[in-house]
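#struct-pred
JK: can someone run the complex with zinc ion? inputs below
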Amino acid sequence: MLEITPIPAFCDNYIWLLKNTGGRAAAVVDPGDAGPVLEALGRERLHLGAILITHHHPDHTGGIGGLKAAFPDVRVYGPAGEPVAGVGSAVEEGGEVRPPGIEACFEVLGMPGHTAGHVAYYGGGALFCGDVLFAGGCGRVFEGTMEQMAASLARIGRLPPDTLIYCAHEYTLANLGFARWVEPENRAVRQRWEQARALRNARRPTVPSRLELELETNPFLRTRVPAVIAAAEQWAGRPLEDQVAVFTALRNWKDRDYD
Ligand code: ZN
Ligand code: FE
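RT: done, C-alpha cells with the ligand placed:
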C-alpha cells in the first residue's frame, strides 16, 4: 500500500512523503527545504528515489540541491515549461511518473494558472496539486490567466469525488473564513470551518481533503452555484456573464478584501 505523510516545512508548507508499506524507497513532492526531509528519511531509514516538483516557486524547490547531495541517484521530475534547477526529467500533460522502488504510477496533469507551467500528479486516488487547489480555497493567479486557473480548477472538479487532495499549504482555516463570507448560509462550510479550527488547535493537519468535500465547501469549485454567483455579483457590482467571470470576481475579492 502507498503511504503518504506530510512533512511540515517553513510556517505553513507541507512536503508529501511517499513510500510503500514496509518498503525502503521513498519519494517526496515539492521539497522546499531539505532539512526536514532528511530528518524524516533518517528517522525511517528510507532511501530517497524520486522528487516530484509541481512548479518553480522556491518554497517548493529549495530543497532539491541538498537532497541531491545526500542522494546522488535521486530522480527529479519537474514541469517542462518552468526553470527549475536540478530537474533531470521534464514532465508535461499526458506524461507518466513511476518513482523508482515505489509501486505507484502518476499521471501528469497540466494545471496552468498559479504559474504558467504548473503540473499536478494524479494516481492511486491521490492528487498532488501544489498551489492550484487548496483545502477550501485555491492558489493566487501569478503567471497564468484567470481563464487558465478557472479551467485547471474545473478539471480537478471533474476527477472522481473520492480523490484525496494533497495540496502544499496549510491555509484551510483562513480559506474557509473566506468561504463563509461567500456563502454564510452554507452549513457544510460552517461545519468544515469548525472541524478545521479544532484540528488546528490540536496542531494537526487539515489535509488531505476529499474532493467531494471541496465540491460542497470550496467557493472556487462552486462557480455554478446560484448563491456563489449572487455573492460574486454583489461584490463585483454587476452581472457576471460566465463561470470564468465568477471565478475572477471571487479571486479578486479574496485578494483585495480578505487576505
Ligand atoms: Zn507557489
Ligand atoms: Fe507555495
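RT: quick notes.
The chain has a mean pLDDT of 98.
Residues 89 and 104 are 17 Å apart (CA to CA).
JK: thanks, will look after standup
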